[in-house]
Amino acid sequence: MAPFKSSLARSATKLFGVFRDRDLSLRGFNSASRKIFFSASGGTKITSGSNVYHVFTTSGALVVSGGLSKNMEILVVGGGGGTGGTYTGGGGGGGVAHGPSVTVVPGTHTVTVGDGGTQTADNQGNANSPGGTSSIVLPAGTIRGLGGGTGTIDAYQTGPAQYNPGGSGGGNGDDNSPNAGDATQPGEPNFGIGIVHYGNPGKGPPSGNAPGADADGGGGGGAGGGGGPSHTDGRPGGVGQPFSNFPAPVIEPAIPSPVRPAWTPTVGPTGIFAGGGTGAKGPTARVPGGGGGGESPGTGGDGVNFSGGGAGGVNAGAGGSGGNGIVIIRYTTD
Q1: How confident is the model at residue 314 (pLDDT cuts 50, 70, 90)?
Q2: Any residues with CB less than 8 A from the CB of 234 and at least 6 apart, and which?
């Protein structure tokens, strides 16, 4: 005789079958949906309203997880140039690369933060006196902010001036020479993703400036200040470039506390980075964007770290050091 099954048992079996089917379907949906989300880590992460920032003051990586790409605003600032010797022009501000809207895909994207150039007693600079290059590596290409050039005096009289060019060029304090460092940042590629580059040539003495060196450095990556009417005077460094979506009051929690008191006012609420250093015995106040002031007595004023500011020149004694660069990534939670 066939086993007896009540109608209640048959109904329960059907009901459990429906639940199992629905459960399998739901689990399948969840499994697929796990691949479609967005998450990012790296640097110091700051959330301000609907904006998220990843601030890199040291080298590291931006790690994007999940199956979604994201449009991000990217700011890459090279280290500022140092200054060398006596009667020197100011160091050039670090070059700036800005991507207003860059599609960043999931993966690990290496970030490098360039150091500021070191001070030197050598009137021509040395291999360590230009600023270091900052960068972020994306599939489209490596976005770079080139280090600023060295502020010098004798580089143009004794041979090739190999340390003066930079993201923004270093200044020249020699009133007998018309030359100053070239700006190399404008020659960087945009990779077809809308990267805009900012950098200016350095300044020489008023009696003989390199082409374009009369500019005050507006347009970012401030030019290094040059010499004055005589080599004991100096000209202000160029003002850095403002980026209003990176204001200091929002970013400052990511800046190490010993640097923050100098960093916040020079970057300011309009987000000014990469100011040039002032020439020897010039105005002592910093220019906006972190460039060092002129002689402060006996040594050039250092550029502000994490601004990419160039060092100030010096009338007598050792030069100054440029400020370290910075890399900042911003996106919205919308």
Answers
A1: confident
A2: 89, 90, 173, 225, 226, 227, 228, 278, 279, 280, 281, 282, 283, 294, 295, 313
Which one, of 157, 184, 158, lies nearest residue 170 by Cα? 184
pLDDT tens column, 189-230: 999 999 999 999 998 776 544 433 333 322 345 665 665 555
- Taking the CB of residue 207, how many other CB atoms lie within 10 A of it? 13
User: Does 328 have pLDDT greater than 60?
Assistant: yes
Rounded Cα distance between 98 and 235, Å, is 28
Mean pLDDT score, 142-166: 89
* Confidence band, pLDDT 50/70/90 cuts, at residue 311: very high
Q: Per-residue DSSP letters for 57-76?
A: SS-EEEEEEES--EEEEEEE
Count Cβ atoms within 10 A of the Cβ of residue 25 and give its class: 0-12 exposed, 13-18 middle, 19 or more buried. Answer: exposed
Local structure of residue 235 (DSSP, 8 states) = -
Going by the DSSP 8-state scheme, the letter that residue 35 receives in this structure is T
Residue for token digits 């502020």?
151
First and final C-alpha spacing in the chain: 67
